[in-house]
Specification:
Length: 209
């Protein structure tokens, strides 16, 4: 594969989408036309439908296993139809959430078997692992406040509270420890978005130059 695949991870409200948007502006200003941006769930026609079901449907109650399989279905479609074709060109793909969110939320958070989630992820990604995963880390009391002030109470995950977020954060940190060569952890608790953006750019430059 000629391109590079970069994923942004971390608990709710930690600043993933903010950083993705800052990278979009950077890419636009520097005419980096080969940088493309996407997200999980999403990025394909099926992904858009699944995103609606998984994050915005207020009434549907889905079991943790079914929920996991929907994330996996989104991922399989996204890898086949979006990521692989893009990586065959000389592109830098930056993706808001990916495999690690499923392990952290559905495994560490909801208590599904973590080894099984790894297996499902492996099937879905068809050999395409991120070249770099940036984990934004902060205490949930900080990110939760940020997420709440944004006022998106419709997001089902955010509605589940601080204790859930603590489990997810611990999960992300454990996942990162297991694969230190893929992960870069940025402590975002006391940094403003532009400082974090500078850190992110440095990490991206390391793998593309
Ligand atoms: N470094 C920062 N300092 C203070 N506020 C921030 C910082 N980064 C982002 N924010 C604010 O925090 C809120 C949540 O940020 P953002 O939507 O980027 O988080 P997220 O990680 O994408 O969350 P989610 O997982 O729910 O999509 C936004 O209102 C954003 O403006
Ligand atoms: Mg976001």
């Amino acid at each position: 594969m000629k391109g590079k695949f970069i994923t942004l991870e971390g608990i709710d409200g930690v600043g993933k989408t903010t950083q993705l948007e800052l990278l979009k502006i950077f890419a636009h200003e520097k005419s980096k036309d080969n940088w493309i941006f996407t997200r999980n769930p999403g990025g394909t026609e099926l992904g858009i439908e699944l995103r609606e079901i998984l994050l915005n449907n207020q009434t549907l109650r889905v079991t943790p296993l079914a929920e996991t399989l929907l994330y996996i279905a989104d991922r399989a479609e996204h890898i086949s139809k979006f990521v692989i074709p893009a990586l065959e060109e000389d592109t830098i793909i930056i993706c808001d959430r990916f495999i690690d969110s499923t392990v952290a939320y559905q495994g560490y958070g909801r208590g599904l078997n973590i080894a099984n989630i790894h297996k499902l992820n492996e099937i879905a990604i068809q050999g395409i692992k991120p070249d770099l995963t940036i984990l934004f880390d902060a205490d949930p009391s900080i990110s939760f406040q940020r997420a709440k002030s944004r006022g998106q109470s419709g997001d089902k995950i955010e509605a589940e509270g601080l204790e859930f977020q603590k489990k997810i954060r611990a999960g992300f940190l454990e996942i990162a420890q297991l694969e230190p060569e893929r992960f870069c952890i940025i402590d975002v608790a006391k940094k403003n978005p532009s400082e974090i953006h500078e850190n992110v750019l440095k990490e991206i430059e390391k793998i593309i130059t």
